[in-house]
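User: What would this chain look like folded?
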Amino acid sequence: MITVTEDRFRLAQAFTISRGSKTEARVLTVRITRDGVTGQAECVPYARYDETIDSVRAQIERLPPDITRQALQPALPPGAARNAVDCALWDLAAKLTGRRVWSLAGLPAPGPVVTAFTLSLAAPDAMQAAAAANAHRPILKLKLGTPDDLPRLVAVRTGAPGAKILVDANEGWTPEIYLALLPSLRLAGVALVEQPFPAGKDSALAELPRPIPVCADESCFDRASLAGLQGKYDAVNLKLDKTGGLTEALLTRDLALRMGFKVMVGCMVGSSLAMAPGLLLAQGADWTDLDGPLLLAEDRTHPLRYDAEGVHPPEAKLWG
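Assistant: Here's the prediction, encoded as structure tokens.
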């Protein structure tokens, strides 16, 4: 039996990127029950990819109740629906066998991973205050993506002079804005620039200087998308809601590394249940951005643990 429920988690404060703001995380929780045992997982339908709560729910509810992970891969396209079902099936297998998911997948036991903490797009003074309040965190990820981003960059570096900085433009720049900002990005010690141009309109990256690694997010989904990124991007941001689950994510990560890409493991804004499978993917990644629960005012029972070592692998009661 497969059940799908909508859950909402209040955010600690409004979260803003170049495409808009939100004050809550709306997610779908999938539970698959067989032989009296239930596996669970979460996905975050994302409007940028033409997904809604209703459309993703409908995709999941059309699946046969006895679907396997192997049959699931061609049954649904990469996206949130396949992610939730795939990860619920992994959790179910772990509970039925009494083994952790990493053991079933032939992976080494995971450890804690240092994650970036995301600063929402805001006025420079607000971003400086947010940076100062989080200056103890080793990595800050700035949401940018407007023609007026330089004061924001300066403000964040002033507020957190010792933090490593990643920048996410969320498709909001043009080549002209990128080139104008590049000297300041280098001066500020920015370590990564994520998705500066819209997906499908990023061919200019093949001709532009990239002294700071440029990472594909909205342009990267699964293995099939990687070939089109060569020569334009230096890194790829893998998110389970884009790859369509842990099964494809692991394969995409391995292929990306063989192709010479650096790897970032990211997330949508969701609960600890959404982040838990990503911890397996993030082992050994160049950058990790699994901070969703840190942005929430409320979380799941048995939430992930965050401390000075980073984000720790999930308890079996949560997932896997």
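The first strand starts at residue 2 and ends at 17. If you want, I can go into more detail on any region.
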